[in-house]
Specification:
single chain, 225 residues, mainly alpha, two-stranded antiparallel ribbon, 7 helices
Length: 225
């Protein structure tokens, strides 16, 4: 276990610090979400909510040494990352969209159920859980969102979409890969860099949304001749 920070084990402190940053990001995204109500904004909100839940409960499970709390954390994290798939699934027909989404959701919940029923298999299923979050949000949703931003014509759409997608990738690919690296090697590299990417992700996402909204207002404001 890493050195204590403010009376908490280092890993727990950074997990709860990440949960706090995600919680602040959730509050900050509510305004833009109410105004836009787009599938992209709902995907961002689901990502933030899922990660806040994940870090809060995994931190609690680590602190009190209760694996059940960590499992509850994975339920929220996996659910949130699956909901980000709703944006890339817009590229498919309605008849394919819903079945694929619910299939992905069922798989996520089955991972958690396996953790609960077979606690002695939890270390292996934690790997599966992280790999599932990497696949759904870090790879599919994150890179699809960035790609849509690259294709966009308006600068404000580019900023919001590319930045938001980069935020998702920062957490659900960069940070999660470092977590798995630590689990595989025992080297506490993720305490320095993995946790950094965890809380950096919502900062990138929120900054991108607010900068994009600012650029949108500027572009739509009447031009003075």
């Amino acid at each position: 276990m890493s050195a204590n920070i403010l009376g908490l084990p280092g890993a727990v402190f950074w997990l709860w610090f990440s949960a706090l940053i995600y919680g602040i990001a959730i509050i900050l995204i509510l305004g833009p979400l109410r105004r836009e109500k787009s599938e992209l904004m709902y995907a961002f909100f689901a990502f933030l909510a899922g990660m806040a839940w994940l870090h809060l409960f995994i931190g609690a499970g680590t602190y009190w040494k209760q694996m059940l709390l960590s499992h509850i954390g994975f339920f929220g994290g996996l659910t949130g990352t699956v909901y980000t798939l709703k944006f890339p699934l817009l590229a498919l027909s309605e008849s394919k969209r819903k079945p694929l989404f619910y299939l992905a959701l069922i798989v996520a919940w089955l991972i958690v159920v396996w953790m609960l029923i077979f606690p002695h298999k939890s270390p292996a299923m934690i790997w599966v859980g992280y790999l599932y979050m990497i696949t759904t949000a870090g790879l599919i949703s994150g890179f699809y969102i960035v790609w849509q931003g690259i294709k966009a014509k308006e600068s404000w759409v580019k900023v919001k979409t590319i930045g938001g997608g980069a935020g998702v990738i920062t957490c659900c690919l960069a940070a999660d890969v470092l977590v798995l690296y630590t689990l595989a090697t025992g080297i506490k590299l993720w305490i320095v860099s993995g946790h950094f990417f965890m809380w950096l992700a919502p900062v990138i996402l929120i900054l991108a949304i607010y900068l994009g909204r600012y650029l949108q207002r500027v572009s739509e404001s009447p031009k003075v001749s």
